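Work package 3, deliverable 3.1, input record:
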Amino acid sequence: MKGYVQVYTGNGKGKTTAAFGQAIRASGHGKRTYIGQFMKGQVYGEVKVLRGNQYIDVEQFGAEKCITKDKITEEYIMKSNYGLKRCLEKMKEGNYDIIILDEINVAIWFGLIKEEKVLELLYQRPKDIELILTGRYAPEKIIKRADLVTEMKCIKHYYDRGVKARNGIER
Ligand code: ATP
Ligand code: MG
């Protein structure tokens, strides 16, 4: 089956959960998904539940703490680039139908990964692989190169009222 490049971006909630939802739907048809999570090192609910899952493999290439732009270290850069290399390998090895790079747009925006390297991965995509990139601030060139781009638009969010991230909803 022919695959396409999808991008879920924008400042509204729903990008990562949409990508995981896509992987779950595909698994119902026996399709396998590899998910590389950038920026993230904490154990999110979706990562926990998918441990040992037959169809969906998740690996994280982020820090345990929240990163801010002024606290970027060589270690974060190395981890992120290792993650990208790993996603490229997984895309090419032929064991997966879907490859998801969660928060990759944010990793580019933070300067952890060069945009050109991600574009290079897009160009190397085997025709039958579905590639999904998530995260705010999707760069223009990636949007241009994608087949599907959805912008999650924040109309309102309770965190503007001071509600903290909740287990099972935000993480
Ligand atoms: P989700 O993971 O729920 O699908 P997302 O991938 O679209 O959301 P991200 O931009 O990756 O959203 O943000 C991760 C999560 O953190 C989201 O659930 C979002 O609602 C939440 N979030 C974003 N900003 C804040 C904030 N300032 N305070 C609390 N939660 C926040
Ligand atoms: Mg997300």
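The CA atoms of residues 92 and 126 lie 7 Å apart.
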